[in-house]
Amino acid sequence: MANNTLLVSLNGDKLEGVAAAGQAEGLAAYSKKWDSMHTARSDREWHITWGMLAPLAGPYLRAVPLITGSTDCTDVGCGVSDLGFELCRAHGLSTLWLLDASSVCIDQLQARYAAVADLSITARVADCRATPCEPASVRVVLDKGTLDAMESDADMHAMLAEMARILTPGGLIISVSFPAVKRLAFLDAALPPLALTHHTYVIASGDMSAAVVFLSLIFCAPAAGIMPPYTPDERTRRMLGRAAACGSLYEDEPDFQPPDPFSFVEETPDADV
To answer: Where would you tag: which of 28, 57, 64, 160 has the fewest CB atoms within 10 A of its CB?
Structure first.
């Protein structure tokens, strides 16, 4: 499948000449890396499954207003995950876009969902920093580990700005990431200029028996009144409080090293930390 990504600069202008060639080369290398990883693995999920997210994310999803003509859900770095499909099924959503830089992933998803008739699914190769989505056109944007996979701060900011660009007023960004203090600092610094805010929870991961991930529910600050109140559980209060007090999420582990991002998950009982 040909890569149909539109290359743009951070201010939205088309890139030309050396700039376009440089970004195209970088995107090609990035895509090749993930093509190779997904070719070598047959597992579908990483970090967490929809069943693990649903109790916390569900109330936020139900608060997102319906907007005629919008896409219900877009996963901006879907990999081979069923997360977006399961979310749409659970909440009766009717349109799903699955985007990824890896053509290997997109080919698999197109084959997997070819027979699905009651949900409109579009799977295509795209750059999460410059998606083919129209402005303010997506009610729910998914990011499971894609922000983690960005290779520079500039790419992280570009991806976040792109998610903000395509989000409808009152829409929701569901972002799942490795637990790291720098992620909290990034969100706290990068979201306000985009008129976004977040509720971040610490939840058990399926990757390892005692591992956790961050679930950040991100939405427009003016829409805070329609979203559920932030009610962190004891684990979230304890770990985020520790991060604020001493800059570490784990006692005696100031330099947290994330596990292999391809430690794929199975449903497991909740594990405390």
So the answer is: 28
